[in-house]
Amino acid sequence: MGVLDGKIALITGASRGIGRAIAETLAREGADLALCDLQTDWLADTAAAVRALGRRVECFAVNVSQAADVEAGVNAAVQALGRIDILVNNAGITKDGFLARMSEADWDAVIDVNLKGTFLFSKAVGKIMMRQRGGAIVNIASIIGLIGNAGQCNYAASKAGVIALTKSVAKELAGRGVRANAVAPGFIETRMTEVLSAEVRQKMLDAIPMGRFGTPQDVADVVLFLASDASSYVTGHVVTVSGGMVM
Amino acid sequence: MALEDKVKEIIIEQLDVNAEQVTPQAKFIEDLGADSLDQVELVMAFEEKFGAEIPDDEAEKLTSVGAVIEYLKGKGLDKKD
Predict the structure, then answer these.
(1) A203 partner at 20 to 30 Å CA-CA among A111, A127, A175, B19?
(2) What pLDDT, in 10s, does the model give residues A54-96?
(3) Contact between B41 and A130 using a beta-carbon 8 Å cutoff
């Protein structure tokens, strides 16, 4: 018996890191899953882990920044699984660099995946949830979208955009029983953060009151709360998961 | 099913109204209690059920039951099953 028994969840960027932890956590609570990433073979490990938990899983190759791709992926997911109760917009990238040196291509790439991808999936799945008269959208933002960060103007802008998008969607769809919330992780141990230098990591650690980096599971547990009926009166909210780094 | 009946059926289902209320003159917002998002949903439902794409500038004009029926007839959708 799980809190998501009978629910169908679609998760983008589910091949590793936070996305994978979210997939396994929702599956452990009884949800069947549609997983999206750029290539389906990237999803093999996550899919195997979910199947080992006894849940159904379907994998789809989707470039989240291409409207036609997203439409096709969402349609295929509904065809296969019947409905979508939970959408987790997790796919995200970084292309860091100082403003003075940031190329237009790096700006566009990050905005396209992180912000436009969240828009496109929210639109495609939001229509289905409106018709169902219910659903929960959980967007993965970042504390950087709240406080900014030197060297990440593209990423910060994309995540701030995700937060504003979340609040607007929450207001628009509240009357249809659809909730939208965001999770803003702090420093989480994933491939996205392992590239940072020891010096940067130490500085981060010094700024975290709880004195440790977060794990993908720390984020997934909050996503589970926002995706489940346990948060049925919560919408338009941003929950930081940062060990107290941002309050 | 005739196009008129199909349109009425969609409206009754979407807006949760009685069949008697859905007259050709009835306006979605003023008479049938729809809000602007309901109207968007209605257009989505017409598009889906009739397999037609309704451009935004046309959709804006579809404010009454009769306007929708006329529009869909104008596109020749009453000839299709």
Answers:
(1) A111
(2) 999 999 999 999 999 999 999 999 999 999 999 999 999 999 9
(3) yes
